[in-house]
Design brief:
Radius of gyration: 34 Å
Structural class: alpha+beta
Number of strands: 20
Strand content: 15-25%
Largest sheet: 11 strands, mixed
Shape: flat
Length: 715
């Protein structure tokens, strides 16, 4: 007997060792370490003349000039270099100034400093549009590129009262003026234990870094959304069936770390809500770390009962509660020093749970070995994150991805538990039905007492059957919910796929041309939407150039009217131009600095909308007025139609991306991507103007484009 147990334990240990190896390999396979920078700066000079960074972005690594306890502008540095010669203090980037030795003294994490780096470019990069991809820098900074201030995150100052910390990633664009680029950065930190540039700054072509940034954001949005949806789904499962607490703890754990993933990496929360308080952001991040170990302990104990001792649960509650209390009431400068302690506590929780999982695997409890494998993946990513945030690991933020793998695996585990419970219910119901039938046949002639007992068993069976039916209905409701979500995602593509298969299988050959027209029209509409989204994205990121020049707005409108008069009249609409009042004020009163091509695009969008929503016989009117408000003269262009109008409650939303007017009775033929007005707004705002709409919802709409006129002293 002992030999059998010894052989079984040895086999389980082999499984455990395999799980650990697979977990480590899987973790570092899906999250490889970033390439080390090939070029390093020396004494504040980085030579990139041998590489074309517009196509091959480089991480800025090496020595930067370092001015401790000084906030210097580029002009200040140039004056000092001209007066004193070369600067003799450098610091290696990326790294915190915490622990940096300066004048035989070791710096602490708080303070302020100025960094400077001169980059020598290749001949091919001198005329390229470049970009800097800035990570989170602790904890407020200003960045000058060739003397121009391009980025400011938080408020830089020389003491805690004058500094406003903020964590955010940035992507800034610039055009090199010559073969060198000078970077000057002021950094202040009085709120965190570490200060300085602790992560790589990346330099490359604007297009390459823009695509890379968007891909990173998309990946983090996928992970975050998945964690949040999984967490909410399991909390709803617990609401429907409160007896099993495993979905509750698992849902809370996943939801909390889904929220945390908004606060790290690309910092999606600050991109969506730039004014979100920094202190609250940091407290939420640390509170999720502190409570994560305790919640996963409760979850593990609910999955594998008695796998966690009472003393460990009590100690976990005390330690977790104390850490959460310290984070909640103390400033970040204090509790960030406890990051190592928090990491040790979290890792100890996970190691203890894995010991319990090994014991459960030895007892051959279902799912224990699988749980151990994915826990190893999560443990490796969590340990890497603690090392990364302490500047001891080259791999970036990995815990969201590791936790996503962990949560998906737990979904399978919980689903198998529900499936097994339903299967057991069915098996018990069948056994009870068979037993009841046999007892009925055997005891038909027994005494009344036996009959009453049989009836009691039948009542118990009916109750059990009713409970099973309720559980089955609950499971069907869950499947319907998933089916509705899947249908909403597949419907657009399934519709077009159905028409393609109908043409291919020649279901109705006489309607093939109609099917192909439907597919073609939808393909064109989707392609147009993609083009408009791409153009709008370029507008929003400042990648569209404008050729601004002084233009007499009256002459511009007359040219526009003459160009599109026949187009509007061929649509069966009257087209009118009214510039009389503005023209009477003199030709010099309505000169606007604008890009004629872009403004023509705005007016064409507005006139096209007017034509689209107006019936034949209606009218489209363009008018110009010049008004002066607060000593500023504005040229106001109005486009009025006699169409169906816009509901007043929707006027503030029509300029939002993908928003379309939704009202009963709208013709099916009126289609659009909902992007035209958003593009109009971006172009008008780039001209320093505004665009708005008025409508009573019944008798047409009026769109007003207001542009500032050039002042007399500028002409």
């Amino acid at each position: 007997m002992r030999g059998i147990l010894r052989f079984g334990s040895r086999k389980i240990l082999l499984y455990v060792a395999a799980a650990i190896v697979v977990g480590l390999v899987a973790s570092y396979a899906v999250i490889p370490a970033p390439d080390s920078p090939k070029f390093q700066s020396e004494e504040g000079i980085l030579d990139l003349t041998q590489v074309r960074i517009s196509e091959n972005p480089q991480k800025l690594n090496g020595e930067w000039e370092f001015y401790w306890q000084e906030l210097l502008s580029p002009e200040d540095i140039q004056n000092r270099l001209a007066r004193d010669g070369s600067h003799g203090r450098w610091i290696h980037i990326p790294s915190s100034w915490l622990g940096y030795r300066l004048d035989d003294q070791q710096l602490n994490g708080t303070g302020f400093a100025t960094y400077r780096l001169v980059i020598q470019l290749s001949e091919q990069d001198r005329n390229e549009r470049l970009a800097l991809r800035l990570p989170t820098i602790f904890h407020a900074y200003k960045l000058w590129v060739n003397g121009e201030l391009l980025a400011e995150v938080g408020v830089v100052g020389q003491d805690k009262r004058s500094v406003t910390p903020q964590l955010a990633t940035r992507l800034v664009f610039f055009q090199p003026e010559n073969d060198t680029v000078e970077l000057v950065m002021q950094v202040s930190n009085f709120h965190h234990k570490r200060g300085g540039i602790t992560k790589f700054i990346e330099l490359g072509g604007s297009d390459v870094l823009t695509v890379k940034t968007h891909l990173n954001i998309a990946g983090e949005m996928f992970v975050t959304t998945s964690l949040l949806l999984i967490g909410i789904y399991h909390l709803l499962l617990f609401v429907l069936r409160r007896k099993d607490r495993a979905p509750l703890y698992f849902g809370l754990f996943t939801l909390l770390f889904g929220i945390r993933s908004l606060l790290v990496g690309e910092h999606l929360l600050t991109q969506l809500w730039p004014a979100f308080p920094w202190e609250i952001q940091f407290k939420i991040e640390y509170l999720t770390l502190c409570s994560g170990g305790y919640i996963i302990t409760k979850y593990s104990n609910s999955i594998f009962p008695n796998s966690v001792s009472r003393w460990f649960r009590l100690g976990s509650e005390i330690v977790t509660g104390a850490l959460c209390l310290v984070v909640a009431v103390s400033p970040a400068l204090f509790y960030t020093k406890l990051l190592t302690v928090i990491g040790v506590v979290v890792v100890l929780h996970m190691v203890y749970l894995m010991v319990g999982l090994v014991q459960s695997a030895v007892r051959r409890m279902e799912g224990a070995l699988f749980f151990l494998l994915v826990s190893m993946v999560a443990l490796v990513t969590v340990i890497n994150d603690f090392l990364y945030f302490n500047e001891s690991s080259p791999i970036g933020n990995t815990s969201p991805l590791g936790l996503l793998v962990f949560t998906i695996a737990q979904m399978f585990l919980l689903s198998s538990r529900f499936t097994r419970a339903a299967t057991n219910e069915e098996r018990i119901a069948r056994q009870l039905q068979d037993a009841n039938n046999k007892l009925t046949e055997m005891n038909m002639n027994l005494e009344q007492t036996v009959l009453e007992r049989t009836q009691a068993l039948s009542v118990a069976h009916d109750d059990l059957r009713s409970s099973y039916d309720q559980l089955l209905l609950s499971e069907q409701g869950r499947k319907k919910l998933l089916a509705y979500i899947t249908h909403d995602l597949r419907l657009p593509l399934s519709s077009m796929l159905g028409y393609v298969e109908a043409v291919r299988d020649r279901v109705k050959p006489e309607r093939d041309e109609q099917y192909l027209k439907y597919i073609r029209d939808n393909t064109i509409r989707i392609n147009r939407m993609i083009e408009e989204l791409s153009f709008l994205s370029h507008l929003e990121t400042g990648q569209v150039s404008y050729r601004m020049e002084p233009v007499h707005i009256v002459h511009f409108l007359r040219g526009f009217y003459e160009q599109y008069e026949l187009v509007v009249r061929d649509a069966g609409l009257n087209f009118m131009l009214d510039v009389g009042v503005a023209e009477d004020q003199g030709p010099g009163s309505s000169v606007v600095e604008l890009d004629a091509q872009r403004l023509e695009q705005v007016l064409f969008n507005l006139v096209s909308n007017a034509m689209k929503f107006s019936s034949r016989g209606g009218a489209v009117r363009i008018a110009l007025a010049v008004k002066e408000e607060n000593e500023i003269r504005n040229a106001i262009i109005s486009v009025q139609d006699t169409g169906m109008g816009i509901p007043p409650e929707q006027l503030e939303q029509i300029f939002n991306r993908n928003y379309r007017v939704d009202r009963p009775g709208m013709e099916n033929g009126v289609e659009g991507s909902g992007l035209g007005l958003a593009i109009c707004r971006e172009i008008v705002q780039a001209h320093g103007g505004t665009v708005r709409a008025e409508s009573d919802g019944e008798t047409g709409s009026i769109f007003y484009v207001s542009l500032p006129c050039i002042q007399e002293d500028r002409r």
